[in-house]
Amino acid sequence: MTNIILKSPVVTEKATALAQKNVYAFIVSLLATKDQIRNAVESYYGVKVGSIRITIRKGKVQRVGKRMVPKLVANKKIAYITVTKGSISLFPKA
């Protein structure tokens, strides 16, 4: 597949709290399926994936700039991935 499946990890308070329970959140391609996401995570991070839940955040209109011009923010697909074996080091230890 030519497009990128895993775009970036989600770094929020909710995502860091879920990481304690071996659940990691990633922004993924809108066209990616659960099997493609599973294969990408297992090959890139070298962990065993238990389950995947997917949500789509709908895009909305934001007003930007000095003249407050409306701009459309695109939809985002977020995959919540439960890891059974091992862990992913996404967040630095404090």
Automatic annotation (TrEMBL):
<keyword id="KW-0699">rRNA-binding</keyword>
<dbReference type="InterPro" id="IPR012677">
    <property type="entry name" value="Nucleotide-bd_a/b_plait_sf"/>
</dbReference>
<dbReference type="GO" id="GO:0005840">
    <property type="term" value="C:ribosome"/>
</dbReference>
<protein>
    <recommendedName>
        <fullName>Large ribosomal subunit protein uL23</fullName>
    </recommendedName>
</protein>
<comment type="subunit">
    <text>Part of the 50S ribosomal subunit. Contacts protein L29, and trigger factor when it is bound to the ribosome.</text>
</comment>
<dbReference type="Pfam" id="PF00276">
    <property type="entry name" value="Ribosomal_L23"/>
</dbReference>
<dbReference type="GO" id="GO:0003735">
    <property type="term" value="F:structural constituent of ribosome"/>
</dbReference>
<dbReference type="GO" id="GO:0019843">
    <property type="term" value="F:rRNA binding"/>
</dbReference>
<keyword id="KW-0687">Ribonucleoprotein</keyword>
<comment type="function">
    <text>One of the early assembly proteins it binds 23S rRNA. One of the proteins that surrounds the polypeptide exit tunnel on the outside of the ribosome. Forms the main docking site for trigger factor binding to the ribosome.</text>
</comment>
<dbReference type="GO" id="GO:1990904">
    <property type="term" value="C:ribonucleoprotein complex"/>
</dbReference>
<keyword id="KW-0689">Ribosomal protein</keyword>
<comment type="similarity">
    <text>Belongs to the universal ribosomal protein uL23 family.</text>
</comment>
<dbReference type="InterPro" id="IPR013025">
    <property type="entry name" value="Ribosomal_uL23-like"/>
</dbReference>
<dbReference type="GO" id="GO:0006412">
    <property type="term" value="P:translation"/>
</dbReference>
<keyword id="KW-0694">RNA-binding</keyword>
<dbReference type="InterPro" id="IPR012678">
    <property type="entry name" value="Ribosomal_uL23/eL15/eS24_sf"/>
</dbReference>
